[in-house]
Specification:
The protein is of the alpha+beta class. The chain folds into two domains: about 1-30; about 30-120, Nucleic acid-binding proteins (OB fold (Dihydrolipoamide Acetyltransferase, E2P)). The protein contains three helices and seven strands; from the N terminus they run αβαββββββα. A five-stranded mixed β-barrel has the order 2-4-5-7-6. A hairpin with a 2-residue loop joins strand 6 and strand 7.
Length: about 140
């Protein structure tokens, strides 16, 4: 066999191995997004698999232990079915009951153990009317200095 043919075959084998490893790594890094209904429809499918669930924090379900830095709550999309969530870490400032949240983690039986919380916030930015000054008030305050 010629030297050139050996290099071509060797290069093809190396390329195939690198491509196979890259595809496998990409599949392990991919995190899919689901709703609570999809997860509860077949919970065994999601056991110990990293996923994201987008839902609302159910009212009157939040329990925050500041000493242990642990947060537990329930997520729902229709207030009829819910998934209990456990999160060990600092509670995000925008985290509220009734607020949208995306939790990333794994199902452990009936409990979702979150490793990350992504809190949705309102897209409305408003100015409080009590603190709003007129142009004249602003100019007077500048002139007084």
């Amino acid at each position: 066999m010629k030297t050139r043919t050996k290099f071509v075959i060797g290069g093809a084998v190396i390329f195939a191995v690198i491509a196979a490893l890259s595809v496998q790594e990409l599949q392990e890094m991919t995190v899919f997004f689901y709703t609570p209904a999809e997860v509860l429809a077949s919970p065994d499918e999601f056991e110990n698999k990293t996923i994201r669930i987008g839902a609302l924090v159910q009212k009157d379900s939040v329990e925050w232990d500041a000493q242990a830095i642990e947060l537990s709550f329930k997520i729902t999309e229709d207030s009829k079915i819910f998934i209990p969530v456990f999160y060990a870490g600092v509670k995000p400032d925008l985290f509220r009951e009734g607020q949208g949240v995306v939790v990333e983690g794994k199902m452990k039986g009936e409990l979702f153990v979150a490793g990350q919380l992504l809190v949705k916030h309102s897209e409305e930015y408003t100015v409080e009317t009590d603190n709003k000054k007129s142009k004249e008030d602003y100019y007077r305050s500048i002139q007084a200095q």
